[in-house]
Every structure is written in structure tokens, then in C-alpha cells.
Amino acid sequence: MMIKYLSVIALIALLFSFANCENWSVNVGDAGKKVFEPNNFDANVGDTVTFNFVDGNHDVIQADTFATCAKSALPNAYSTPVHAGNAAAPAKEVWTLTKTGPLYYYCDVEEHCAKDMMYATINVLDAGVAPKVPGVKAAAPPTTTPALTNGTAPPASTPPMPSASSAVRTDKQISVAFLYVALLSLACYFL
Ligand SMILES: [Cu+2]
């Protein structure tokens, strides 16, 4: 019983640390212009940024400082492949903002960074701090549904004669799923 409560607490902690409450949209390229639009906005930790490759051949590479055309030294520095722009059906890349502070990025295709000043900033604020310079809001990117197994693997196949105990377990899993959705809404409301 104790382990079950601990699982729920762990789930809540996970939710509050990873609840994606906002997804911001940045267009990469614009009708022949080598730009990120918008190129400077505030977001909150836990938010996501979706890059839409709408025009030209570009990529997104994290830098350590503003207007620097060199990849960040961080081991987990963000980078995308080069995408060919397509306004009707743009390739999309998602950056999850896991740390507070300014993030810098640029395009390293040809000399877009050095010659065309194709670089930009995202100011990542603490959760709950209202952005002063909001970006462009977009629909949330597709997320994977976490497995609700309480740490144990689900049975490989459904038993032919479900017993009363398995029915109870299913009810509990459904309750946990409802709890999860409710908490996600709450976390997004308050953060
Ligand atoms: Cu570029």
C-alpha cells in the first residue's frame, strides 16, 4: 500500500516538473529571408518551442552566447538537421526548455549566421513568471502517453477469464489515469 502512495507522489512530482503548459512557435526562414520569427521572446521552463521550417535550407543549433556562430559546448546542446523549407507542410522540430536562463541559437547553413545574422534568443523564465515579451503560441506538439503500470510491466496478453482482482486493478489504473489528467490540467493552470 505504501509503495502505491509513493508511486502516486512520484507521479505528481514528475507532472509538476515536466508539465508542458505552453508551446511556442518559431518560423525558420520567410519568403527568401534568412530569419527566425520571432527572434526574441520569453518562455517558461517546461514549455516547448516548435521550429517550423517554412522557407530555405536551414537548421537550428544552440550557441553559448548571443550572436555566436559556434555550437554550444554543452554535452546536450540542442541541434536539428538541415531542413528544406516548405510553407505548406513545414518540417517541425521541438525544443523542450528544461532550464531557466537565456538560450541562444543560430543557423549554421553556409554563412547564414555570420553574414545574414540568422541567430536568436529565447529567455527562459522560472515556472509561473509571466512572460513580458510573449512569443507566438502554437498547439501542443504530440506527446507520448506515459505507461501507467505502477512500475510493473503489464501482462503480455489478456487472461481469457478475467478475475475479480484484475477488474479491481483495471479500475485502479483508470483512476490513476484520471488523476494524471486532472493533475496535468491543474499543473498547467497554476504554473
Ligand atoms: Cu540558415
TrEMBL record:
<dbReference type="InterPro" id="IPR052953">
    <property type="entry name" value="Ser-rich/MCO-related"/>
</dbReference>
<feature type="compositionally biased region" description="Low complexity">
    <location>
        <begin position="140"/>
        <end position="155"/>
    </location>
</feature>
<dbReference type="InterPro" id="IPR003245">
    <property type="entry name" value="Phytocyanin_dom"/>
</dbReference>
<dbReference type="Pfam" id="PF02298">
    <property type="entry name" value="Cu_bind_like"/>
</dbReference>
<feature type="domain" description="Phytocyanin">
    <location>
        <begin position="44"/>
        <end position="117"/>
    </location>
</feature>
<feature type="signal peptide">
    <location>
        <begin position="1"/>
        <end position="21"/>
    </location>
</feature>
<protein>
    <recommendedName>
        <fullName>Phytocyanin domain-containing protein</fullName>
    </recommendedName>
</protein>
<feature type="region of interest" description="Disordered">
    <location>
        <begin position="140"/>
        <end position="165"/>
    </location>
</feature>
<dbReference type="InterPro" id="IPR008972">
    <property type="entry name" value="Cupredoxin"/>
</dbReference>
<keyword id="KW-0732">Signal</keyword>
<dbReference type="GO" id="GO:0009055">
    <property type="term" value="F:electron transfer activity"/>
</dbReference>
